[in-house]
Write a structure and sequence with these properties.
This protein is an alpha+beta fold and about 260 residues long. It contains eight helices and 15 strands.
């Protein structure tokens, strides 16, 4: 749970675990995840939540959100839920054929935020398991296909930049500057440092008239984000692991590796 360090959205932490197909993050919220992967979610089975407009499934004794109501869930302030855990599924019939053992595995996921076995079920056809405490502070997301993670990251970083670095018009009015998504192959080339645990620091951006540079530091594997932030502050005095470069004229992203 969030304790002492208010990040104010000025950093993004990512730890990629390829073997177990999950990503730990701090700084990416459900609304950003859903915006990137809206075309990939059919229905949502709620494991931990405070959403008040779900449907009840008798077999699992859990609430779920039909696809047509996901927009309402996205619009809700899920951070206030505390624990916010769910997995997607294709058809309600899939819920009704889960075994007792499988339901127990799913309940364990929501409670412990870790798997007993990789949490992908053929009956459900699920692509994700989303486990969060104070959404955006501690998020652990399992991906059936890690390409979906790189898709989220490719849009989340430019989105953060647009929020934190607004453009001033002629009259001094601040407005969002739109940045294109980052090519996923660029981000995939960062996999070695993401597997260590990396921070993208928007507070430490360098820029001139032609380009903008987002520095990246390797900080390690953390599940406690206060500890991660303390390690990041220590890492600021060490060489960065790389920089994402945005060319303002070409409107293109590139990577400067250290």
């Amino acid at each position: 749970m969030r304790k002492s360090q208010p990040f104010n959205g000025d950093l993004l932490y990512v730890h990629l675990n390829e073997r177990d197909q999950y990503v730990l993050s701090c700084g990416i919220e459900f609304i950003e995840f859903a915006r990137s992967l809206a075309d990939s979610m059919a229905n949502i089975l709620l494991l931990k939540h405070n959403f008040e407009d779900g449907e009840y499934n008798r077999h699992t004794m859990l609430q779920y959100v039909p696809q047509e109501r996901i927009g309402k869930l996205v619009a809700d302030d899920v951070r206030t839920y505390g624990d916010f855990c769910w997995m997607d599924f294709e058809e309600v019939e899939g819920l009704n054929v889960l075994t007792g053992h499988e339901i127990a595995e799913i309940l364990y996921l929501g409670h412990i935020k870790h798997h007993l076995k990789l949490p992908f079920y053929n009956q459900l056809g699920n692509r994700f398991v989303y486990l969060a405490q104070e959404d955006g502070w501690f998020n652990k997301i399992y991906y059936r296909n890690l390409n979906d993670f790189f898709r989220v990251l490719s849009e989340a970083i430019p989105g953060k930049l647009a929020e934190l670095r607004p453009e001033k018009s002629l009259f001094g009015i601040r407005k969002k500057r739109l940045y294109p998504p980052i090519n996923k192959e660029i981000l995939k080339s960062l996999s070695p440092v993401l597997k260590e645990g990396a921070v993208f620091s928007f507070k430490n951006i360098g820029q001139n008239r032609n380009r903008m540079e987002i520095p990246i530091w390797a900080v390690g594997d953390f599940s406690n984000m206060d500890d991660m932030y303390e390690e990041f502050l220590q890492a600021l005095g060490s060489p960065f692991a790389g920089k994402l470069i945005f060319d303002k004229k070409l409107k293109e992203w590139s990577l400067l590796a250290q």
